[in-house]
Design brief:
Helix content is 3%, strand content 45%. The protein has 1 helix and 30 strands. It is elongated, with a radius of gyration of 22 Å.
């Protein structure tokens, strides 16, 4: 099964009744062996608590339970600051949930499941209620998670929950789960998260935290754009990364904004390349001392001996 290329912009509940199965889930996989379920290139936003009386509710982006093979790749999940529940009760708010033990996640089987979580963006801007980016209940079966991007706006937002304990930050999550060794923490600017437009905006182009290697199973993004070898985490392939594979030798450079554009002071001869944010080259020179160029207001990339830096005029 392929659950892909969906843009889900309203995930809300007004549940007031206690019970393990109450609440709302954006994408829920309860298939059993021998099913393979691929969940990729989905944008999930618009998470909402209907009113302050809401309680005892699960609010999940993606959940995988039972014994199928689940591949959760290149999804973008964003929690806004929601209406606070007066009484949380047994409420659980999480981006991606994988349960393999008796729990409020539906008491799935303890053996047989295989879940892989890669190249996702999970962001929580909730200011009061407890949330988790990844909630992994139990320790049985196969669970792999890596190359994800997390952001927790406030201290009540946890990066993870492993077995039976919170992991407040990425280091704690890595220690508890032995996963996400190459994952990053960083905020992302979207085109319009409030309306569900989770395309990566120009302010987050070239952000090294978002750079991941393209997965063979996800050659395109949600919009059908071919992904580059070095692609973006999440559902959107934004502007191509300018790669610095041959960035030698290292040159000390001081990059300054001037009234007319940009000025760079170099300590030795270097190749200087200037690009706009669409990846089009503006100038390329081999020079030393001081390099300058007039620019209109905007966002640019300057590359010095292959090392790229984002620059705002």
């Amino acid at each position: 099964f392929n659950v892909c290329n969906n843009k889900i912009t309203a995930i809300s509940t007004i549940n007031k009744t206690a019970g393990a199965n109450n609440g709302v889930i954006g994408i829920d996989n309860q298939c059993v062996t021998p099913k393979v379920v691929n969940i990729y290139n989905n944008m999930l936003s618009g998470f909402a608590v209907g009113n302050a009386a809401t309680t005892n509710s699960k609010i999940y982006g993606i959940r995988c339970t039972a014994t199928s093979t689940s591949n959760v790749y290149n999804n973008t999940i964003v929690f806004p600051d929601m209406t606070n529940m007066t009484t949380l009760g047994s409420s659980l708010i999480a981006g991606i949930v994988y349960a393999t033990a008796a729990s409020t996640e539906a008491s799935p089987a303890a053996t047989g499941g295989i879940t892989t979580i890669k190249n996702n963006i999970i962001i929580s801007n909730e200011t009061t209620m407890k949330t988790w980016a990844i909630r992994r209940v139990g320790t049985g079966t196969s669970f792999v998670s890596n190359n994800n991007v997390f952001y927790a706006a406030t201290s009540n937002n946890n990066i993870g929950y492993f077995n039976a304990s919170d992991a407040a930050d990425l280091t704690a999550w890595q220690t508890a789960s032995s996963q996400d060794v190459a994952s990053k923490v960083g905020n992302v600017t979207f085109e319009n998260a409030a309306t569900g437009d989770l395309r990566i905006a120009a302010a987050s182009y070239q952000d090294a935290n978002l750079q991941v290697v393209r997965l063979t199973d996800v050659p395109k993004d949600l919009f059908g754009t071919d992904r580059d070898y070095y692609t973006y985490a999440g559902a959107h392939q934004a502007q191509a990364f300018i790669i610095n594979e041959n960035a030698t030798p290292e040159v000390s450079a001081r990059i300054m904004r001037t009234m007319s554009g940009i000025e760079v002071q170099l300590d030795s001869e270097a190749t200087v390349e200037l690009y706009n944010m669409n990846g089009m080259i503006i100038d390329k020179v081999v020079t030393s001392g001081t390099y300058s160029h007039d620019l209109d207001n905007g966002v640019y990339i300057i590359r010095i001996n292959g090392k790229a830096t984002k620059f705002i005029k």
